[in-house]
Amino acid sequence: MNLSVKIGSATFNNPVTVASGTFGHAEKYYDLEEVKKLGAIVPKTVTLYAQEGNPPQRIVETPSGMLNAIGIENPGADGFIKNKLPSFKKIGVPLIISILGHNDDQFEQLAKKFNDVEGISAIELNLSCPNLGHKVLVAQDPQATHRLVSKMKSILRYPVIAKLSPDVTDIKEIAKAAEDAGADGISLINTFTAMVIDVKTRRSVLGNFTGGLSGPAIRPAAVRMVYDVAKTVKVPVIGMGGIMTAQDALQFLIAGASMVAVGTANFVNPRAPLEVIEGIKEYMRENKMKDIKELIGSINNKNA
Amino acid sequence: MNLSVKIGSATFNNPVTVASGTFGHAEKYYDLEEVKKLGAIVPKTVTLYAQEGNPPQRIVETPSGMLNAIGIENPGADGFIKNKLPSFKKIGVPLIISILGHNDDQFEQLAKKFNDVEGISAIELNLSCPNLGHKVLVAQDPQATHRLVSKMKSILRYPVIAKLSPDVTDIKEIAKAAEDAGADGISLINTFTAMVIDVKTRRSVLGNFTGGLSGPAIRPAAVRMVYDVAKTVKVPVIGMGGIMTAQDALQFLIAGASMVAVGTANFVNPRAPLEVIEGIKEYMRENKMKDIKELIGSINNKNA
Amino acid sequence: MPKLQNIFKVISNEKLCPKFYRLCIDAKPILKDILPGQFVHLRTSNGLEPFFRRPFSVYRAVKYVEVFYEAVGLGTQQMSRMKKGDTIDVLGPVGTPFTLPGPDIKEVVMIAGGIGIAPFLILSDVLKKRKDLQLTLLYGGRTGGHVYPMKEFKQNGVRIHIATDDGSRGVKGRVNKLFDRIKPDPKTTIVYTCGPNPMMAVVQEFAKKHSLKGEAACEEVMACALGACLGCSIRTTKGFKTVCYDGPVFNLNEVIFDH
Amino acid sequence: MPKLQNIFKVISNEKLCPKFYRLCIDAKPILKDILPGQFVHLRTSNGLEPFFRRPFSVYRAVKYVEVFYEAVGLGTQQMSRMKKGDTIDVLGPVGTPFTLPGPDIKEVVMIAGGIGIAPFLILSDVLKKRKDLQLTLLYGGRTGGHVYPMKEFKQNGVRIHIATDDGSRGVKGRVNKLFDRIKPDPKTTIVYTCGPNPMMAVVQEFAKKHSLKGEAACEEVMACALGACLGCSIRTTKGFKTVCYDGPVFNLNEVIFDH
Ligand SMILES: Cc1cc2nc3c(=O)[nH]c(=O)nc-3n(C[C@H](O)[C@H](O)[C@H](O)COP(=O)(O)OP(=O)(O)OC[C@H]3O[C@@H](n4cnc5c(N)ncnc54)[C@H](O)[C@@H]3O)c2cc1C
Ligand SMILES: Cc1cc2nc3c(=O)[nH]c(=O)nc-3n(C[C@H](O)[C@H](O)[C@H](O)COP(=O)(O)OP(=O)(O)OC[C@H]3O[C@@H](n4cnc5c(N)ncnc54)[C@H](O)[C@@H]3O)c2cc1C
Ligand SMILES: Cc1cc2nc3c(=O)[nH]c(=O)nc-3n(C[C@H](O)[C@H](O)[C@H](O)COP(=O)(O)O)c2cc1C
Ligand SMILES: Cc1cc2nc3c(=O)[nH]c(=O)nc-3n(C[C@H](O)[C@H](O)[C@H](O)COP(=O)(O)O)c2cc1C
Ligand code: FES
Ligand code: FES
Question: What is the pTM for the complete model shown?
Fold first, then answer.
């Protein structure tokens, strides 16, 4: 059974990865033999300079999901490359590095830094992190998306994946802009901007006031956006949003995603990504599929 | 304790209503004495001509919510006015009539028909129903929203409430356009476009292919949009999206909504709207509030 | 706000055979209003999982309101854990009941598949009072292992013919294998059916062929069960009809089963 | 994918007093790895409600892994219904444990508020082996009605001083009313505290005043408990630190309790 997929020049043994910001690789806790089974790993977004992140409370439970306002706490590009990348490389699973700049110049410097690094498979542009107090996200603006993706493509020697925000009127338009600018792949969805108010104190529960909604609650919206994007662009799509089980992941693959990312589920069931891989294989066996390509985009959309 | 609120020239005894499409008034089932306690009733959206609605399956459960693709099944304006309105009027609760036209002319004709009707309090413009196969919804386009609301204001003798879709990049922009065009109130949110795929058949579960996501799953996104809109416009806001309990409704009021609508919750707990009214009173008592105005927009947003 | 949302006490919740249970609810206030074919919409959890209530035909409404159910998923599994003394949020009775046979009818044929037998015990409870009626049940089940409480049907004087997919009880095959057991007469025979759509489609053909009057108790996923959301519509020759309000009982010849 | 996610069997789940329970888990594979101050992250439901796991200090790890918990909300209420033989999904042990006192330390003062007593039984289990140590527990609770299993602390040779808000047991008032019971010496005394932030803030002041070394076991809402999500950060004098990975045990003087 062939589960391998490609994004640009990068090949992955299977279509299951972990979503950025939801997989902290703590050597002392993780079972490397199990982690090795992942199709790819996407570490938390790296910014040019270290960020200490948002004030607490940073997360809160919501019905079938959660809000987060971490604020991309990270050691910065140099710190990441020096202190974290080596242990990620040791795992031996293809790495997709997520980067975010607070302006074009920072994105440019980030691209150059990672060009000089060996042993990574692709770069994911986080165009959609809602927790930085921007008025408008890059991923909410087709022109900005096109401009930034083109620039990144002109610099990066690695395949470029554009990660989109669901807080848009027409996700197809943004995806198309990224593809036209040369993106090798599109990943979606990031979180929906949201908030929870503590009625006792009449304050927002999150220290950052607003946060990003993720988890099964948003899955139906994510599946629909992935379907819309997959039928709009020719490049591979990485689908995510509320995947807890293989059944959930199959919805995204059937809708047209070439890869799926498990995010929030890692917090509830750290074994979810492996269970998803096993479940996809089982489904393909039952349905006599020899190649994951038979599954990807196999939706019967007569009634679309 | 004063719970009454105003939208334009219309006054409501309390800020709790039912969301359009979620309250079918079946005389043979409902306890009129209880229904009388509502602040207002918003019947299902009425279109100019009768619509038979979408093919089954029309609804499906999702994590902490549901999808619906009813397709605005309704008897049309004349049928509604003749056969349904009288029994709604009999209840004696202020009526907010939700209307949707498939083009400006239909909206115009609907406005004229309801101008000729007595005993309604306001008109809600459904600018956001995602289940009619439109490419772009009116509520996704500030210009179209402005144009349509102005036209409706120029015709209607009743207060006009613009109901917005959450499937937009910047809800504030749409709300502002509606207010600038003279809307007496803004109601939000309608459902998020979404879909569920049956992995056995590889078809969309809903006969209409996509549907609208509602229920507690979307509440955190709804609260944030209501907060954004309430601080952007001066006209009253009707907040909705996943309200199941008084605690949920309080989040919307504290965020700045002058009224709240209970929707999907009616299906799970038909008494939810009454429990919400009671819970709001209790909260005001505990917090020594004499007027609902002390509660509306009382959020402490220092950290915003 | 409906009159008919009530919190009642569970009297018993008996496991009859693997996966099949009988829930007994102390529901005096609604007991007398229930008509054969109507259903109750039960909240199986106080939380959000599952999100919807679950609809169940009333199986019997003599002393208590009884529901005969199969544990197929989360909601019915939660029900299967209910114990005497627990409270349950019951919405109902709702829905359009069976039309009882007119004076010209002499034979009532109830054709059920699987759990579709549920609405027929209460129907026979009512019809047994009419001594001039011959009650027959054609029942198709997966296997004899699922021993349904046929005793009560017998006590109601119902003639019972059984078919099982594996032949472990009664005739081997689907319920249509039992059609030859009845001698239908268009003027004096009426058919009531409840079960999977493919089965009811076969019954519809059979009724058409012998031009029999009949009714079908249908299923669709439901939200409100009050005719409010218009979510449970199915296709009929008269357009979309809600299963919860226009149905669940429909004229057998008007239902379009191809969905 | 962490080594330490396991499905274990519940041995017992005893109700000690209204709302306080003691859950006993058969967790041999991890039993020996657990250090005082570490915690386990429990999945209280197989469903999505509540959505997160729930963190609990290990109360004792002798024969079984024990958790002493208070039923405050949905997750702990679900736990309170667990029975012998049930399975439970346990993530852990995780977190940074207490630093055990050095050879120069002669007196260990454990200052606990409410359920904050949980991590101190296992601590005393370990420290009692050091005969040169005087173990003291200053405990502040709501009311004497909540009879905590002080017996085991006594068996570990712990000197116990109790204060209750309503004075129904021990001194009336907060735990700070008990500070005068100890004669702290900066060189030989160490303070460990766990409880509500306002209480630990008072303990911090007290420690500062007498320039005592100490550690605090802190709380924050958690998602992963593996240092992955960076969601459980609190303020410290050294910047944001995760309670699950850098903590839950922190240097008492470095925690900023004003959140
Ligand atoms: C009017 C009516 C009367 C019914 N009477 C009975 C009865 O007397 N006894 C009984 O056991 N069942 C009855 N059902 C079916 C029962 O409602 C479903 O089995 C139940 O809702 C399944 O819930 P669940 O959470 O256990 O399973 P789910 O996890 O919701 O689903 C499990 C399986 O059941 C199917 N299902 C879910 N909801 C429905 C539904 N509303 N109708 C049909 N299939 C569904 C799903 O598609 C899935 O295949 C009736 C349904 C209707 C509409
Ligand atoms: C490291 C650590 C160790 C803990 N050890 C214990 C223990 O040994 N025994 C024990 O009874 N409790 C302990 N707690 C607290 C326990 O995790 C919470 O009481 C529990 O998560 C509440 O879950 P719930 O669903 O019952 O309540 P919820 O409905 O989630 O909340 C009820 C109340 O508890 C508060 N709460 C929720 N989650 C937490 C949390 N993670 N920390 C603090 N308060 C919270 C909420 O704000 C709310 O006020 C510990 C917490 C942490 C972080
Ligand atoms: C705690 C947390 C932190 C996240 N951090 C990042 C991040 O740093 N960069 C990013 O692109 N997405 C981040 N995300 C978004 C996820 O990668 C993912 O797009 C989103 O959560 C939807 O998937 P899910 O529902 O499976 O979690 C984060 C999500 C969570 C819950
Ligand atoms: C079954 C169903 C039918 C609906 N029909 C309409 C409608 O006809 N017109 C409209 O403006 N909104 C309609 N809505 C949207 C609701 O009015 C409401 O805006 C949305 O569901 C969010 O609120 P909730 O989460 O409380 O349901 C419908 C929602 C549901 C679930
Ligand atoms: S379930 Fe709502 S109309 Fe039938
Ligand atoms: S809970 Fe995820 S980092 Fe602590």
Answer: 0.96
